[in-house]
Specification:
The protein has helices at residues 3-24, 34-37, 40-43, 49-66. The chain is an all-alpha fold and 71 residues long.
């Protein structure tokens, strides 16, 4: 594995921990009103700001892991 894939994996794991903390613990209000703009099954995963940050970190880590490498 190259360094970018390892850093993406670490970023995804950190994002998952932050998302789980935000999902199971009470936190601050979310930035976006997910219940008004998305279906209920998506909005239930984004309950507060911490869960939004965690989801963004997981997506950024996934992008790093699967971005094509230079040849």
């Amino acid at each position: 594995m190259n360094k970018r894939a390892i850093s993406g994996l670490v970023l995804s794991l950190v994002g998952m921990v932050v998302w789980a903390y935000g999902y199971f613990a009470g936190g601050t209000a979310s930035l976006i009103d997910w219940h008004a703009h998305t279906p209920w099954w998506i909005a239930d995963f984004m309950t507060n700001l911490e869960s939004e940050i965690g989801m963004a970190l997981m997506c950024a880590g996934t992008i790093l892991m699967y971005w094509p490498s230079r040849r």
